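REVIEWER CHECKLIST
Item 1: Sequence provided? yes
Item 2: Single chain? yes
Item 3: Sequence as submitted:
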Amino acid sequence: MRLLIYSLLICFSLNATAQTRIYKIVDAQGNDTFTDKPPSPNNRDASTVKLNEINISAPTSERDRAEQASTQEDNETKTKYTVSISSPPDSTTIPMGPGNFSITANVSPALGDGAQLQLSMNGTLYGEPQTSSIWLLNNVLRGAHDFSVSVVAEDGAQLAKSSPVRIYVLRPSKLYRN
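Item 4: Structure as written out by the authors:
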């Protein structure tokens, strides 16, 4: 019974698409209108539009779906990194001076497969990705700065990111007496 219903639906849908015609009508102002209703016989600016066949692709085979699933599992088994900033601790104040200090990160497990570390300062990438977990920063302006470290793949994809650490930098100023 179901087979009969499905075959009737397919026949009706094929018949309906085969008989559908689209008309292009150009009005007095030169505007194009597309419709499925036939134009009046006295309309000389009407024409039938020929449509291309519908592009239908076959469903993927069971083998293709199995390969996609195994590829997805391989991607999920890639190394999962954890990264954190170990020095300086959150809410540290860098005392008066030229604004020079270092940031140290911990990453677990050790970097591999072309992975590198990328430092961000106030949401902006700072320097190039590197394999070392220590950054020496020079001449950082006064104020509060949020730092985070990301593990990035060779293609630039972010694999892990640390929690942000806020560091306050004090610098001498001619405008403000400290």
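Item 5: Key structural point noted by reviewer: Residues 82-169 form a domain with the Immunoglobulin-like fold (CATH 2.60.40.10).
Item 6: Recommendation: ____
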